[in-house]
Amino acid sequence: MPAQGGQHISSPVPLSTNRKGTTVHNASTTPEATETGAAAAIPSSNRWRVVDIVVASVIGVATGLVFLFWNNVGYAWFSAADAVTPGLGGVAVGIWLIGGVLGGLIIRKPGAALYVELLAAIVSALVGNQWGIETIYSGLAQGLGAELVFAAFGYKRFGVLQAVLAGAAAGAAAWTLELFLSGNLQKSAEFLGLYFVTVVLSGAILAGLLGWLVVRALAATGALHRFAAGRDVTERV
Amino acid sequence: MVSSAPRLRFVDRVNPVTRLAALVVLTTPLLLTVDWLSAAVALGIELVLFALAGVTPKLLVARTWPILVSAPIAGLSMLLYGQPEGTEYWSLWLARITDGSIELAVAVTVRVLAIGLPAALLFLRVDPTELADGLAQIAHLPARFVLGALGATRLVGLFVEDWRAMGLSRRARGIGDHGVIRRVATMAFALLVLAIRRGSKLATAMEARGFGSDTPRTWARVSTVGGSDAALLAIAAAVAALSIAVAVWAGTFNPVWS
Amino acid sequence: MSGSTSAVGPVRVEARGWGWRHAGRLRWALDGIDLRIAPGERVLLLGPSGSGKSSLLHALAGVHGGDDEGEERGSLLIDGARAGGARGRAGLVLQDPDSQVILARVGDDVAFGCENLGVPRDETWQRVAEALDAVGLDLPLDHPTSALSGGQKQRLALAGALAMRPGLLLLDEPTANLDPSGVAEVRAAVARVLDRTGATFVVVEHRVDVWVDLVDRVVALGSDGRLLADGPPDEVLERHREALLAAGVWVPGAPLPIERRADAAGSRSAQAILVGEQLAVGRRRGAVVRAGLDVALAEGCSTVLTGPNGVGKSTLALTLGGLLEPLGGRVAASAPLAGRLVPEPIRWRSRDLLTRIGTVFQEPEHQFVASTVRAEVAVAPHALRLSGAEGSARADEVLTRLRLDHLAGANPFTLSGGEQRRLSVAAVLVARPRVIILDEPTFGQDRATWLELVRLLRELVDDGVTLLAVTHDAAFGEVLGDRRLDLVASDDAAASAPTGSAQ
Predict the structure, then answer these.
(1) A110 and A151 in contact (C-beta within 8 Å)?
(2) What region does A88 belong to: left with phi over 0, alpha with psi -120 to 50, or beta?
(3) Which residue spans traverse the membrane (chain B) (predicted)?
(4) Whose CA is closest to C76, among C8, C20, C9?
(5) What CATH number belongs to C13-246?
(6) In this structure, are residues A12 and C409 in contact, taking their beta carbons and an 8 Å threshold?
């Protein structure tokens, strides 16, 4: 895959400024700039800065609001699919898993995937949804699933592969937890098998791939200029 | 979060953290079994308690309708795909309605209600600042994360205004009538951009006020727990214990791992 | 001795060969800065956007991020110690009122800084009361911060900084996002605070007239990130006038090289192109902000809509623009404007609005939908189903006219404030609407962007476009106020009727 993919944002004016007058890094094709970007891409510390905490929180809250919407729309799909097909309802699950992927890819710190997904779940639960406390347990499990993938890569690689795997792992974690929380162990093996496949695929695509695309597009807007994820847009593969 | 909600007797005097703990104590045991009796006992007691606290039927429906709608749907899935047992009444491909699946369906429906209602009603009125104070001072969660999350929740009001303005602008730009999915996607993305920008600025503002340094923090507001908190926890534990005990005694107890 | 306050006196600031470079950049945003500010001195810092003014302020406040975000060289000292080493020594107020309110209640928000510094509880609340008094915010401690006006939010931020008892007060364009009354509020509060505390003071702002009487020194940075000028206000503003004007600074007393529209007389007899009859407006059903409004927009004229905050100016403009449904009465377009459609704009399709009424939103980012400047401008031609050739010809034309052609491939969100404003206008112009409605088009713009924008809008009116602008900007009204609608603050129906609709 070419480094810039379909989102080539390099402009004839490599440097532009945002409204506050702080400079924003636009993707530049000059080799020097790419090198500097690559150097900045390696986080110098695993300690969370204030901006990491606050932006992770903002993403968590925003994702929680998306959940509230999806709890109605996505759940309608989920239940309709569930009623006619065994286990295919899992296709809708991916969106509920996107918090962990976004958190991991943007913040790039240990615990980010877990924190964002958990916070989104708490927001969704406290505002009120059909699952109550289960939501928080689900957030914990799903965030942990994504977190394990980023940890397995030593918090050093944040490409599309890691994103897709994190989404899939979050799906697998969700499936496992539901065996107990929703009493799914009481369902037939055929249902569970199909459900596993759809949940994991949905996680890989709707959370993993979509999350990766969103982060890449966010980086192109300059909004992530305080994060390594926003400074190495030309580095992504 | 919902400040327009009416005050509840007793519940509103309890620290939000205790309410969260009570929710865990009350509903976690119910998650361990899929049987109609434990769920029905818990649900019955919950309804009585909330009615005593001042929840009217109207308020109940207004605040918990998503739960009321989704409970039978969860039951339907179990009805069709629950582990078959006993007489089979109907089947189509993998879907089979049997004595066993009917019992499971009823159990799951009541269980969703028993677990979902207390969460919605205990947090009818919760002040995020109070919850955060409790989480940091009583539950001793890391203050930097608790306060960061609290700062983020304050931005929600701005997000709502952003969303409205963006909706109007889509109409002004000639793309307001078609392609709902695409339109909502462009708005959701722009919202995320604005949210991250605001978050970055908020982080700077918080740092400028000394947030995130290694100096030990003091708390201008004290979060306290007292008799009411103990009482709510005791009630939650009692309801959970009673529900499970009744199910075990009646022989309907059906742990999820069986 | 007030409690445990080691009441920090005014501090001394010293920069020696100081420079700052953002991570991932080759160019130093600031370099070779040598600067000494004596304790209690009051400095106005000027410079073109991108000259690193904010970076310097952030560095002094110790909030320019860690090594991840950039590198510095040289030294930047506060009372001889590294800037940022001791939190609470410097208090910083930022530009955006909405993004620096931290907590939901007024008292809690002011107390936040004290808590982080480890100030004991009783003393914290005492400091909160003092700080709120100093900035003149006479509100209950549990007053919701979301209910504050922009000027009140900025004074709240000032109180929050003040409660930390800083020896250095830093303001980063604190009034850029405020209306004139908000600006006056904040300026008065700052003056009072400085008189009480005697703190060293540095303010960044391109509207010089707001601060010039309050400071005793002006420091200007050049676009190369180095010092351009430093000295007493009158001397610097006089000697470097041209350079400062070129940098977009609003130098007091510099005349605007643009004239009032000449043929306002010719437009006096103009027909109404859009009328509101007994209008009630509001953002949501049941939330009427104003009722009983009778307004008319004269064809081919420029009308400015003024009035204090919160009287529903924007809501009225959006309602006239066919975006919000009237909550009472009706909006009707003239027959030539409506064409084959019904007279009520709210009943037109989104696509039909494009060539009739264009609306430019206050916040450009609210209207962006594409990932490049060019695609952004192509949205309207595409919605109008123009042919590819016609569409691109029009897009090229407006991009050139608004000097955005060199940015065609850039992402709209990465543009500067001035560029975003031009793009938001370009995206509307491309559809060639007969009426253009703008909400605070000159808000927070520097002088260069202001001139460019006002000239363009004047040209449009000269070409026969009807303009309605919601604005607090007196200079804008001078040039483009052929007609004025003044929405006064009152719930009395008679008084709420717009006044002075003709000159």
Answers:
(1) yes
(2) alpha
(3) 20-53, 65-84, 104-126, 138-160, 180-196, 230-250
(4) C20
(5) 3.40.50.300
(6) yes
| Contact status of B34 with chain A (Cβ, < 8 Å) | yes
pLDDT of residue A38: 38
Which 3 state secondary structure label does DSSP give A235?
Answer: coil
Residues 6+ positions from C40 with CB-CB distance below 8 Å:
C10, C198, C199, C200
> Which residue is listed with tokens 């009051």?
C42
- CB C458 within 8 Å of CB C479: yes
SS3 C186: helix
φ, ψ at B94 (rounded to 5°): -85, -10
- Provide the residue ranges of all domains of chain B, joining segments of one domain with +: 11-127+226-250, 139-208
Query: For C389-405, how does the pLDDT look when each residue is reduced to its tens digit (9 = 90+)?
Result: 999 999 999 999 888 99
B-chain CB neighbours of A126 within 8 Å are: 1, 123, 126, 131
How far apart CA C51 and CA C25 sit, in angstroms, is 14
Tokens of C17: 């060969």
CB proximity list for B57: less than 8 A, separation 6 or greater: none
- Quick check: C69 contacting B, CB < 8 Å? no
Alpha helix (H) residue ranges in A85-188: 98-107, 112-127, 133-152, 160-181
- The DSSP code for B6 is P
Shortest Cα–Cα distance, A212 to chain B (Å): 13
Vertex B161 angle, CA B157 and B165, to 5°: 170
The rounded Cα B46 to chain-centroid distance in angstroms is 15
Q: Do the two domains C13-246 and C262-496 of this chain adopt the same fold?
A: yes
Type of residue at A36:
T
- C-alpha separations of C59 from B117, C18, C30, C55, C73 in Å: 51, 10, 11, 6, 12
Cα separation, C8 vs C169, whole angstroms: 12
pLDDT 10s digits, B27-82:
889 888 888 899 999 999 999 999 998 888 988 888 888 788 878 887 887 888 77
d(CA B65, CA B68): 5
- Boundaries of every domain in chain C: 13-246, 262-496
Second-level CATH architecture of C262-496: 3-Layer(aba) Sandwich (3.40)
Q: Following CA atoms C209, C214, C215, C216 in sequence, which dihedral angle do they give, to the nearest 10 degrees?
A: 120
Q: Which of B199, B197, C244, B187 is nearest to A24 (CA)?
A: B197
Specify which residues C330 forms β-bridges with.
C277
Greater model confidence, B253 or A5: B253
CA dist B45 and B59 (Å) reads 18
Token pair of B11 as six digits = 């519940």
From residue B156, give the alpha-carbon distance in Å to each of B7, B149, B204.
23, 11, 18
Tens digits of per-residue pLDDT, C418-453?
899 999 999 999 999 999 999 999 887 888 889 989
A222 CB neighbours in chain C (<8 A) are 411, 413-414
- H-helix or E-strand spanning residue A25: strand A23-25
| C34 min Cα distance to partner chain A (Å) | 21
Nearest Cα to Cα of residue B129 among C148, C146, A131: C146
* Residue linked to tokens 């009646």: B250
Say yes or no: A45 contacts chain B, CB-CB below 8 A: no
